[in-house]
Amino acid sequence: MDLHCEMILDEYREAIPVLEQMKTEVLRLLREALDRSGLIVTAIEARIKTEESLRGKLALKGSKYATLSDITDILGARIITFYTDDVDRIAAMAEQLFEIDWNNSVDKRTLHQLDSFGYNSLHYICKLPGYDFRFELQLRTTLQHAWAAINHDIGYKTGVEIPREYLRRINRLAGILEMADDEFSRIRSEITDYRRRVQQLVQNGKLDDVLLDGDTFNSYLQARPFDALNKRIAAINQAEIQEVPLIHYLRVFNAFGCKTLGDVERLKKHYQEAAYRLARHQLGNTDLDIISSAVGVQNICIVCIIASGGGKMGLVRFFDAINGHNTQNEAIAEMTFNLAKSIQL
Amino acid sequence: MKTEIVENGNQIIAKFIGRLDTPAAVQTMEDVKPLLDAANKEIILDCTELEYISSSGLRIFLSVRKEAVAHGSKVIVRNINADIRQVFMMTGFVSLFEIQ
Fold first, then answer.
1. Which residues of B lie inside 8 Å of A (Cβ-Cβ)?
2. For residue A267, with 0-12 CB atoms within 10 Å meaning exposed, 13-18 middle and 19 or more buried, which class applies?
3. For domain B2-99, which architecture applies?
4. In chain B, what are the domain boundaries?
5. Are A299 and A279 in contact (CB under 8 A)?
6. Tell me: the pLDDT tens digits for A44-62?
7. Residue A310: what pLDDT?
8. Mutation site for A-interface testing, chosen from B22, B60, B89 by largest number of A Cβ within 10 Å
9. pLDDT, chain A, mean
10. pLDDT (0 to 100) of residue A117
11. Which of A125, A190, A294, B84 could form a disulfide with B92 if both were Cys (CB 3.0 to 4.6 A apart)?
């Protein structure tokens, strides 16, 4: 190590507190920007180059650097995303947050020849206002990160030159992961489009075209299909309505054999009057002035079970489905069954 | 109406004795404050000796549940009599609590 490199190392040791401060600031800015955007990523990390690593770099090409500030990766930050599209979104975000040194930034994703595969990552050399040093921001997907990490482990750690055959096999894997990354992004886009289409169908009332599943039932619930019945029931005692989740009723409608949201809607329309009568009979003689938003759908399910001959056991299965299995469900089912019989639902 | 609070390891148990009606609700809300402060524990609402619950009583149970859920915990309602079971059922709150 010559005197020039030793001077850069001295400069590095003195700069550590500033670099630490810079690291904290970079991470803070990135985390805040990601929170604002609502983007979820796998990891955000940053590190200051270790003295050992810097020493190695200077030993190889120390004459290239006049001062420490010429080394662009003395501080490195990395964001690992789930999807390839998110790399570009975060790159746009970084362009707003930092001053980008375009001459030294490189998009390794676009560097490959048509017939080559390998390291894929976007590297921005950035400057944070108020600091002399630049830093490197690496943006890559989880799969790109996994490939880079394994490639580094295999290629560098052993210190032995890897035969061409193995390098080719590693690079072929990069091609497969590139295809997988594209497919994950495509799947995400198609799911988003599917959800939009379902919401549109729900809004337009074309419920027979929408198959019943967790996603579609959630969209249906957002249209608040049981509100009118709940409000009628609340009016019996001028009760307030407490909002509670209804998504667990999906398994009940599945058990009823509903295949589409249209089936659920028909079932609701068919039984809502009897469900109201059940509520009026129960609540009319009380001064209970608080009900949950589940009362309408709960009563619809109860009268559906009674009307279709499900009997007490059907009600036990229903309460097991919405409450989880417990010994009290049998008593609740018996009480409900006797009441339903007494008012001839 | 009496409320007894007992801490038992990772559980906190509130034992209700008597009628939890509107006049009793104000004092009961005061009495259950230790449950709200320890909402990170599993909360047991022991109703073995609870004879009656009104809307005001239900609101107390809901406040306790809200605090427990916010802390990632849960509320178990234990040993309710037939009348109280009916109140939970007819108001649609039966699926909101774990009833044992």
1. 54-55, 58-59, 62, 80, 82, 85-87, 89-96, 98-100
2. middle
3. 2-Layer Sandwich (3.30)
4. 2-99
5. yes
6. 999 999 999 999 988 888 7
7. 92
8. B89
9. 90
10. 66
11. A294
Q: Would you say the ipTM is above 0.85?
A: yes
Quick check: B55 and A295 CB within 8 A? no
Residue A308: CB atoms within 10 A of its CB come to 12
Which among A321, A340, A207 is positioned nearest to A269, based on CA atoms?
A207
Residue B32 to residues A6, A289, A294, B23, B57: CA-CA distances in angstroms?
A: 68, 22, 26, 16, 11
Render A49-89 in DSSP notation, one character per residue.
PPHHHHHHHHHHHGGG-SSGGG-TTSEEEEEEESSHHHHHH
Beta pairing partners, B6:
B13
**Which H, E and C letters describe B45-61, residue by residue?**
EEEEEEEEECHHHHHHH
Distance from C-alpha of B62 to C-alpha of B83, rounded to nearest angstrom: 18
Query: What tokens were used for B77?
Result: 């309602």
**Which ranges in chain A are annotated with CATH 3.30.460.10?**
3-157
Task: Write the residue in B87, B91, B99 that is nearest to A323 by C-beta.
Answer: B99
CA-based nearest residue to A68, from A58, A78, A56, A60: A58
User: pLDDT tens for residues A164-223?
Assistant: 888 888 888 988 999 999 999 999 998 888 888 888 888 888 899 999 999 899 989 988
User: Is pLDDT above 80 for A232?
Assistant: yes
Query: What pLDDT, on the 0 to 100 scale, is given for residue A211?
Result: 92
